[in-house]
Design brief:
The chain contains 15 helices and 13 strands. With 404 residues, it is an alpha/beta fold. The longest helix is centred in the middle third of the chain and has 23 residues.
């Protein structure tokens, strides 16, 4: 049987149209929540982290953690496993994961002009026109970021992504449902040997992507008839060594007959390929108002494969914690505005799982006692030996892993 996928702009009347199609077709509905739950079970990542891959902007730590790529890999696997079921409908962000090569999937987009969407948002939530417009713009930013992540297409309503684009402000829900059901009977979208093979290739690519993510790698993956192609899109210093490592991982995946690697368009950009090392923290927030010191420290940590972001004051640090939630924070005590002790209090109150290492040149024994009582992982004095700091970071990371 054919598969239905629905992607929709917010406030475009999708709920009633999907309900009508389900009632008349008997298809089983799978939502983002369903696929996120499946991906979470298989990966061990929380549902919140999985959902962040399409609901929030990319983390500043992502080039070190590959967390977004790992989440998408497991979402693809969850979507691929659905392909073996009959009469399913995938609705939401995850619907865009189904590639066009699977021709028995009817890919539908529901959209309306912004004026009608604003009117609908105002009616549903009692919002002003300005607030409704801002709400829709924010929603569209998320959908644009998602289509750009998957296909490098910034317009989420681009016709190349769908088989049918239905303007819900120009047709009734009954007309939309009838048109979808009519096309569902079309011979063109019935399963064929070729389209079933495309679904198998999609599943194999998803399994390979997951196998690589388990080892900390993030590269492009495609598959056809057992041949897997890996695309390296980031510059790497020892290309041959990386290719050998990638191939050795992929060759262990069931269904892979051969592996080839190629260089993608992003290979010649300035960024460097980084394999995620599970033994060291890759979401470290450095908080210090001494700019030269903290920038140098960040560079030295990166040389040890520890990814870091920088905040130069307490308020910025707290904002970043709220937005990105680092694993470990290296915190100075004496800063203008909110000082380190106050930051430590607030972090431990709101995010107790973040391990905080105090690194200061002005602290006293009394400060040490206060910090440790507040839950600091360690209290170190400047100047600190980078090896000692690294050992503390690794120990903090191990504590986090044990909790997980």
């Amino acid at each position: 049987m054919s598969i239905l996928t629905f992607f929709s702009g917010s406030y475009c009347g999708k709920a009633s149209i999907i309900a009508d199609v389900i009632d008349q077709s008997g298809f089983k509905l799978l939502t983002d929540k369903d696929l996120v739950a499946s991906a979470s079970r298989q990966s061990g990542m929380s549902e919140k982290k999985i959902a962040k891959s399409f609901l929030e902007k990319t983390s500043v730590f992502n080039k070190f953690t590959h967390e977004k790529e790992r989440a998408i890999a497991y979402l693809r696997l969850a979507a691929a496993e659905c392909m073996s079921q009959d009469e399913i409908m995938i609705e939401g962000f995850t619907s865009l994961l189904i590639p066009a090569s699977i021709s028995h999937a009817l890919r539908i987009c529901l959209i309306a002009d912004k004026t009608s969407r604003i009117a609908q948002a105002m009616k549903e939530h009692g919002l002003s026109e300005k607030d409704a417009s801002n709400l829709i713009s924010k929603s569209d930013e998320a959908t644009s970021a998602w289509s750009n992540t998957l296909y490098k297409i910034a317009d989420p309503w681009d016709a190349s992504l769908y088989d049918m684009i239905l303007p819900t402000d120009k047709m009734t829900k009954d007309e939309a449902a009838a048109l979808i059901l009519e096309n569902l009977k079309n011979e063109v979208i019935q399963p064929t040997k070729a389209s079933k093979k495309a679904a198998e290739d999609f599943a194999l690519a998803a399994r390979v992507e997951v196998a690589l993510s388990k080892e900390g790698h993030a590269v492009g993956v495609s598959a056809r008839d057992g041949l897997v192609t890996l695309t390296i899109n980031t510059n790497v210093l020892l290309l041959g060594k990386l290719e050998e490592e990638l191939k050795s991982i992929v060759q262990q995946v069931d269904g892979v007959s051969s592996v080839e690697t190629r260089i993608g368009k992003g290979f010649y950009q300035a960024d460097i390929y980084r394999r995620f090392d599970f033994q060291v923290p890759s979401k470290v927030l450095l908080v210090d108002d001494e700019r030269e010191f903290v920038q140098t420290l960040s560079e030295r940590l990166q040389m040890r494969d520890m990814g870091s972001a920088i905040a130069y004051d307490g308020e910025s640090a707290l904002n970043l914690v709220e937005a990105d939630e680092p694993d470990v924070m290296i915190l100075d005590l004496k800063m203008p505005g909110i000082d380190g002790i106050e930051v430590l209090k607030k972090v431990k109150a709101s995010r107790p799982n973040i391990e905080v290492i105090i690194l200061t040149g002005h602290g006293s024994d009394a400060d040490r006692d206060i910090c440790m009582k507040l839950g600091a992982f360690a209290y170190l004095q400047k100047p600190v030996d980078i090896e000692e700091l690294s050992r503390n970071l690794e120990a903090a990371n191990e504590k986090i892993r044990q909790k997980q």
